[in-house]
Amino acid sequence: MEGLRVSGLISGMDTDSIVEAYMNSAKAPIVKLNQQIDELTYEKTTYNNFITMITDIKNSMLSLKMESTFKSKTTTSSVETVASAIASITTPPGTYTLKVDQVAEPAYATSIYTNKVLSQTGAGIKSFSPSFSPYDQLEGTHTVNVYTDKNNLWVAKDTFKGNSNDKYSVNYSDTSKNGLFDSKGNTTAKIKGDFEFVYTFNGETKSFSINMDYSVNTSINKIAADLDTEINAKLDALHGNNSQQTMKVTVQYDEDTGGFSFAFYDVDTQNEIEVLGMVDPKQDSSQPNTAATDLINNMGLNATYKSQSTKEITNYLVSTSSENLGIKLNSTDKGGFFAPGKIEFEDGKGPTKGTFKIYQDASAVCRPETYTTFYGDTFDKIANANPAIDRDEIDKWLDTKIGSKTTAGNTFFDDGTVFKDLNGVFYINGTKIEIEDYTKYTPNELMAKINGSGAGVTMSYDYEKNIFQISNNKGGAVELTMGNDTDTSSFFSVFKVGINSGATYVRGQNKGSLDTSAVISKLDPSFTYPIKSGTFTINGVSIYVDTSKDSINEVISKVNKSGAGVTMTYDSTTDKFSLTSTNEERIKVGGPNDTSSFLLSTGLLYMQTQETTIGTEGKDAVFTMNGVKYTRENNEVNDVVPGMSFTINTTGTTVFNVKIDTDKAVTALAEFAAKYNKLINALNPTEISYKDELREKYSEPLTDEKKESMSEDEIKKYQENYEKIQYHDLLIRSSELRTLKTNIRANLTKTINSDNSKFKSITQVGINIAGSSTRDTTITKLGLLFDVSTDPEKLAEYIKEQSNFVSILSENPDDVFYFFTDSETVYEKDEKGKETSKIVSVGWARVYSDYLDKTVNSTSALYKKTATNGTIESEISLLKNQIESQTTRVEMYLERLYSQFAAMEERISTLQQSASYLTNLSTNNASK
């Protein structure tokens, strides 16, 4: 640290300024040396920038050395819904016509065996315990009406409607003859023989044998139930209906004649079946009827009527009393509707007159979806009306204009009803409904107006309860809103469907589903048919379920890991289970040693201890490709066309069009060209001559002294121009960069010699030098690729639209691929005669990449310039040493200057003292 100096006190001279002037002169060499370091640092940064650019080019060429870049394919399918395809690099371009005749399907089974629940009590029914039967697979609601007919017989009429409002085709037999069946539907004679059942299957007439052996007093319902089971089993065996219900056989009853007949409902959704009747196979048409033929005629099965369409399946039971009807309803031997399921009656004997409903489906939680409903209050005038007797009169009232009278008297509206208040608006589910003039509407017309309003409801009249009701069209626990504060119509009170008018609101019920994560014994809701712990069998493999520990998910996991060759799933939407096989063979479930009811509860089986084959048999995919027929086990095919895999979705025809994916190669080439052009631009800066005005203003580095008189923008501009001159001059004097500029282009345009490609130079594959097409030498001499741009997207666009590269690649994918990527193995022998081999680059991309690597590797001139302890760092180190030595000399010179000025001050002080002494001495002598 310099000591505190006080100078010029004696001499009065500005010593510090004089020293500073000397020091500035002495420090000039140090400033020069620092400028040289700055210049070398700038050179190193510039060289490193070039190394980075070269490395970027080299890295971008990786894609240009890959087969997938030039030989990848795009594949389109003319009909994607039939099949889709993916082609690989080995797939020959072209068109491939695929015609799918059959889609592969694994063996599959789902819940089909139905549970049943009492969904509406009535007719003296207390409870119901369901059971399973092999061909009872329809899903919907049985509405059973119990009544006494005019013959004073007790009748139970079962009307079944499917959940999906299904339509069925039905063939009715002729009415039985000659008293074969008594008034209760029991046989009066023995029925025995082998009969031929004749039918058409999808338009083709077929038949099979049915054996009957019934004693006297056998119920016609028993015969119908047996026919139902045997016909379904025979159709299943003959046509492969996969244990699915094909037909429903029921009994029809004519109250007027007391006659009975059979009805054959085609419930097969896949095939069309029409029953033609029964014949005696031994009957000779030229001979009198055989006993068997007479028996068929008496049963009414000799002929059936032409098919009719219906949405209802009806079945009848007839007996002499309530108690006997109850016995029939619960008897399998007498063909009870739901036997062997058991109906419990409130009186313990039989039903009363009325209606009850049984819901059935194959879901685990057998519970019907109901609809949110407002049930209206009864009208006083018809509170005790009998629908069977008074329905015609009620229908007249419903078709009478509101407020007027029928010829029979007043309508059912209460006396004193103020109809004029009906006019106005009211809201249902937020939808506005307006009655302009109530006198123009009948109740039926007004109900039609509401049902068509878009409110999502249905208004109807219930003849049994003698009330109006309004229900949501959407099932489940969906809110139904009636009215709001702006209502001006008295509709809800006039029709007694409002809460304030005595109506009852019942919220709909959602269909059941299971919580698959809960322990089975704690499920709520749970299986309609409870699961018992134990074992069940699938494809001969035994699986154990513990209802106190296992959840549904855990049981499913056990099945899927069991080795049974199936995958089990549960669909919470349908509340059903399914099994998908790993092969084509149909799935077998159940076994004699099974102790768990799991398969029964899931609707996959109807008899626990009997092995049953269920579901559909798997199918192979059958198709033709370009006229050649193939069969495959699944729909994922990858061995027909080289390198192509396709997925079959459905039957039909599609055409696959396979083309070279030129976009991939264009993108790779554009990325390379962008980085190459960036380097070329960097090697060709704007020319700055030695007489250029720029040099006169900005050739010297900016000193701190000059900066003090300049603004920030002026400093920035000066620095930019100064570095521009530095950069230009560096490229002029640097032999390394001059060599790079020459070789980077020379190696680019070198020809290659590949035995696998007909192309030898980049121009032959459509890579052109920018400006060559327009012969613009100012651009051509730069050596840019394609265009002057360094934007990959713009260059890609240029390559696609203005070069020949895409067309050349499309027509010659192999030649272009080998031009870029070819290599060969060279074998050599060392001094000891041992043979060695090495891979030699032949393709242009490999050769050029090798050149770029040599340009920046550890042996290159650029690397030696910029490496740690390289040429530039060595020069900087020498300069720093010189600066250190020079700094020491300057500091010593500074000390010497101050020492000399200090001595001078001291000498002047001595001289001043001497002069003062002499002056004083002279003054003293003069005074004497």
Shape: elongated
**What's the story with the biggest beta sheet?**
5 strands, antiparallel
* Spans of at least 5 consecutive residues with low confidence: none
Alpha-carbon Rg, integer:
52 Å
Helix content: 25-40%
The amount of beta strand, in percent, is 15-25%
Number of strands: 37
Structural features, described:
This protein has 928 residues and is α+β, with helices and mostly antiparallel strands. It contains 22 helices and 37 strands. The strands form twelve sheets. Strands 1-35-3-31-32 form a five-stranded antiparallel beta sheet, with no helix packed on it. The longest helix is centred in the last third of the chain and has 57 residues, at 871-927. The radius of gyration is 52 Å and the shape is elongated. The protein starts with 14 loop residues before the first helix and ends with a helix.
